[in-house]
């Protein structure tokens, strides 16, 4: 009998009760961290590249710990035409695959589903924990393996993100995925998504 891949959701509630819930997931068929080795200057782009937009407003209530309170993340998703995670409703026709959140100082924090790193000066750079991003397990491993590097304070702001910038999105359940920033919607309005 084959082994089943599981993700384990561990929840510590306000009363101090700890619970763990296993959920079957599709197992990896290749190294889920391979996209972190991608060099946009020399490598051919992969077949699948996520479309990622910037949230239309700053988010001030994210946390460095994983939380079941997804209001900030789901709000960002809805603003760019995505449904909240777990929704069965279809996204808008021109919806991206994910959205980048940023804090009230315009510093990038994370995406709605994971940590992010931008390709800058020949390497992947991720927001520092002080910016307000989740201290993800895969993020930490990528830093320890020198595949991504923490940005200096305010290095990654919405003001220095350009259309078609490469983004590495990572979390411990899905691994690493590559994306490109799309600042404008395809509706033809010409509105900059970060204004």
Explain what you see.
The chain is mainly beta. It contains 2 helices and 10 strands; from the N terminus they run E-E-E-H-E-E-E-E-H-E-E-E. The strands form 2 sheets. Strands 5-4-3-10-9-6-7-8 form an 8-stranded mixed beta sheet, with helices on one face. Strands 1-2 form a two-stranded antiparallel ribbon. A hairpin with a 3-residue loop joins strand 9 and strand 10. The chain is globular, with a radius of gyration of 17 Å.
Our count of helices gives 2
The termini sit apart by: 54 Å
Low-confidence stretches: 186-195
Number of strands: 10
Work out the oligomeric state of the chains in this entry.
Answer: single chain
Molecular shape: globular
Derived structural class:
mainly beta
Strand percentage lies at 25-35%
Computed Rg: 17 Å
Helical content stands at under 10%
Q: The biggest beta sheet, please?
A: 8 strands, mixed
Average predicted local confidence, pLDDT: 87
* Series of secondary-structure elements, N-terminal to C-terminal: EEEHEEEEHEEE
